[in-house]
Amino acid sequence: MDEVHVVVAHSERATLRVGDVFLKVDADQARIDVEVRAMSLAPVPTPEVLWRKPPVLAIAAVPGTTLGRLGGPSTGSPAAWAAAGDAIRKLHDAPLPPGVGRAGRGVGGLAAELDAECALLVANGLLPAELVTRNRQVAEAALRPWTPVFTHGDLQSAHVFVEGEEVTGIIDWSEAGRGDALYDLATFTLGHEEHLDDVLVGYGGAVYREVIRAWWSVRSLLAVRWLIEHGFDPFLPGCEVDVLRSRM
Hints:
Layout: E1 4-9, E2 13-18, E3 21-26, H1 29-41, E4 49-53, E5 56-60, E6 65-66, H2 78-93, H3 107-123, H4 129-139, E7 149-151, E8 160-163, E9 166-170, E10 177-179, H5 181-189, H6 196-203, H7 209-229, H8 240-245
Antiparallel strand pairs: 1-2, 2-3, 3-5, 4-5, 6-8, 7-10, 8-9
Helix pairs in contact: 2-6, 3-4, 3-7, 4-7, 5-7
């Protein structure tokens, strides 16, 4: 019998792997609705939906290996990272999906959320004030109008699978919707800045790198407290706090 492997688990959702099947358990069925709809619309390889019985979604494993994970070594050749950039471009060029995902929050609301989170990080002694202040300054470049595109919304490098120089699957679409293209690019390269040039070669076109760097600060600032409260450690080497420190 195949063993049950816990991929991720916290109070909001859990993902288990049994053989070649992933079981996603989510108390919020709206997230599962978004995921299933996004996978059906995205013009890139996505997992096959095997069955759905709330609160569980069963999907097939995709072939290949991930390009990396935050806090871990990056894998894949520069050409593989470029291929991922090309796949991301295809997604962003696709017709807009319904709904607004994580990457599509309004500028005013995002700024207010970020300011409140920065205040809590300092007040609770989680991060030094100087570190928070500097990254809040860097983050300002992301707080500008953008043209909405079809975004994945949580495009971590661990969510992109490749074989050789071909993208074989992109997983975890529960945050998909209309949003800022540079948010996806920033999420994908978070903690793997050395591959940004490779990704942009595949992505093509003019891209404002300072906005990508700003999104690195935004995502990290907003993640630290949530990660701690849910049993994860953003202080591990190469993770969110190191990303923030690299902006100093």
